[in-house]
Design a protein that fits this description.
This protein is mostly helical. 50% of the residues lie in helices and 6% in strands. The chain is built from two helices and two strands.
Length: 102
């Protein structure tokens, strides 16, 4: 009976760690989304004419250090219609931070 309890405890602990890491990733992507929207607000990029380049919009595969969630956030915000992208690859804000449920 003792071995069964250890196995079940180990599996439950593994499941909890997996769920915790998923919540951590969602939290970091949400923070990156807020960062991107605030950055576009500071740069006054509110329409295609005032669109700006975002240096962190492209994924850098050879970057050392912690994982950068900003490229994923930019991609999600474009797909969600929060920010727009011009044909030149510049970004502008379609919705203000106050309008979002972040």
């Amino acid at each position: 009976m003792n071995d069964l309890i250890q196995i079940v405890t180990g599996i439950l602990l593994l499941a909890l760690v997996f769920i915790a890491t998923r919540y951590g990733m969602v939290w970091r992507i949400k923070r990156a989304c807020v960062y991107v929207v605030k950055d576009l607000e500071q740069k006054n990029a509110f329409d295609p004419a005032s669109a700006v380049q975002l240096p962190y919009a492209k994924v850098d595969h050879f970057r050392m250090g912690l994982r950068d969630f900003r490229p994923k956030a930019v991609q999600g915000l474009v797909q969600g219609g929060v920010i727009g992208m011009t044909e030149e690859g510049k970004y502008f804000l379609r919705k203000r931070l106050e309008e979002l449920n972040l």
